[in-house]
Each structure stands twice: as C-alpha cells, then as structure tokens.
Amino acid sequence: MSDLLPDPETGIEVTPVQVAELLPAIQRGEIALIDCREDDEWRFNRIEGARFVPLSRFAEASPPEVPAIVYCHHGMRSLRATNYWRQRGVEAWSMSGGIDQWSAQIDPAVPVY
Predict the structure, then answer these.
(1) Does the predicted TM-score (pTM) go above 0.85?
(2) Which residue, 3, 9, 38, 91, is most buried by CB atoms nearer than 10 A?
(3) Whole-number pLDDT of residue 77
C-alpha cells in the first residue's frame, strides 16, 4: 500500500483535500484515480488524470495494479465500486462527496451539475 493513503482498516473514504494532496502520486502512476460515473457525466466534467471505468461495467473492467481512489458525482456509486474491488482484494478508497465536492473545495473550474 502507498504510505500516502490511509490504512484500509480504518476507513473506506478519503476527502477531496486528501486526493488533491495525492495528485503528484496519481500523476506518477503510483495511485490510480478512477471515475465510475457514466459516459454522459464523464463527457461533461472530470478530474484531470482520471481513468474512466463506469460502474455499469465495473465487473468486466480490469482493476488497477496500484491502489485506487474511486469517485462519482456525490460519493454513493464510488462507495459501491470501492466495496466491490475491496471484496476482490484491490486496495481502493472512495472520494467522499464525489466530483461535486471536488469542484466546491478544490477546483471551481470543474463545472457542476
């Protein structure tokens, strides 16, 4: 596990602020940032550096080989996706509040819907 991420035993979520602090590790490929929203949402807005894996196709997608942070619109779908991967041995966390909170707290240039 990356030393930058919280212990998976202590929680399943990370905040947008924590994710922003992890952007250099995400850009280096040490942590995967996964957008689990659907195609129309992905086309509307996204966090730079994210990989698109819609929740509707999670079962057929190859999980990343590095720890992953999953986000959606408000954080509910990403919790389901994170639990799905964790049950399969993948180190994963959900970003609380989703891209909506990312826009409010980190990057207001990311449009909201």
Answers:
(1) yes
(2) 91
(3) 98
